[in-house]
Amino acid sequence: MAAREPLLSALKGPLWGFRRRDYWHCLEQLPLGEGGSSLRRASICTKALTAQGRGRCFLRSALQGKVLAVAMQQLAQSPRLLEFYDPSGSILANEELREPFLSLVLVLMEVDFSLDLQNCSFLDESWLLPVSIMYETVPCRALGMVVRYVDGRVIVIEVLPGSQAEVDEVVLAGDVLDEINGFSLRNAYRGQAGVMLQKLKGQPLSLRVLRWQGHNGEVYEPLLPYLEAVKEKEPYFQLQCGPRRCNKGEKRRVQGGRLLYNLQYLGRIGVGMFGGKEVLQKAIPAVLESHVAPREVLFDVKETEILVQEKASPKVLFRHCYPAVSCVGRCLKTSNVFAFCVVASPGSPKGSTFDCLVFASSSEQECEEIIQRIAAGFKHTEWFI
Question: Which of 69, 158, 207, 353 is in Cβ range 3.0-4.6 Å of 146 for a Cys bridge?
Fold first, then answer.
């Protein structure tokens, strides 16, 4: 333990034996100097419920903020250091060990750490952190997930067929809901996630999801006791390894925690001053007959806009907010081709004109899914504005 966590070595036991001592109990009494922001972050962290979790939260924050060396020097100079540490075995309380240790910590200040400080819900149990994914979705009446509450954690036990959550293909049975729009679900009471979603009804949602699979592809070990508890209450519960509706074609690309569609951009055509869905029946065949070389693109249906970028590079080809979208649909003759119309010249003295943008997907099912998602985003934004 001393080799892995030197701050835990040679900690004295509590005077009256009421609680196990941790280095956090000493750190939290330091003056709020240069490392004060990291101390404050750890002390108010709602996801770390134990002294061990808060101590680990502080160390990650201090590494990110390049203030760990300052905090360790303050700790070494604290008059209460010997109250917590035995000098015969402590790195900080032993003068021969202290200087080399502080020198190594100073070296760490030269390293640029890029840590997800919000991924801290399992620091109470382990330094090993789960795979954390941000799931953003369009406003909808219900996401379509069944959850179980186990010791303050919200475990997804089923993603309902045909639901928005299944369409988005991000959340899997066995995952943990960690945040909803920035509000922590750590130590959640029974029904809290449903109450929060009800209050946010009609708004774009951003959820932090902790994957049941760890970085090694196996079950994330600290989650095992919770999954076993779910299995006892729900005998038919099964971990979900992948989206049920995933097509057999090319897998979607994950970017920024979002699943993007691999599509072909077939082109665009002006449709005049009328952008209703009726124009699609002529506009789509006109683009197909132009025989322009298709472009491989990544298509993202976001909560407030549609974003299209080149597949081979991060270049954004175009983005259109939902208020600029006048219609979306497909032609009856081409089941895997869809299009949407957007305002092309809103400031024209003769009135607005519209362009029709045409895309091809890998299947009719995927095509219909994209149309439904664009329509849902468009309807909400139109109402919200």
Answer: 158
Rounded Cα gap, residues 360 and 371, in angstroms: 12
Q: Taking the model in full, what pTM does it have? A: 0.62
CA separation, residue 268 to residues 203, 335, 355 (Å): 31, 18, 7
How far is it, in rounded angstroms, from Cα 379 to Cα 385? 10
Tokens of 112: 């640029």
CA distances from 273 to 160, 270, 284, 349, 356 (A): 42, 9, 17, 12, 12
Among candidates 269, 245, 241, which has minimal Cα distance to 372? 245
The CA-based diameter of the chain, rounded to the nearest angstrom, is: 86
CA distance 144 to 164: 6
Q: Residue 2's closest CA among 120, 76, 94, 73?
A: 94
| Res. 249 pLDDT band, cuts 50 70 90 | very low
Determine which helix (DSSP H) or strand (DSSP E) holds 383, and give its type and residue range: helix 364-384
Give 108-156 pLDDT, tens digit per residue: 888 898 889 999 999 999 999 999 999 988 766 778 889 999 999 999 9
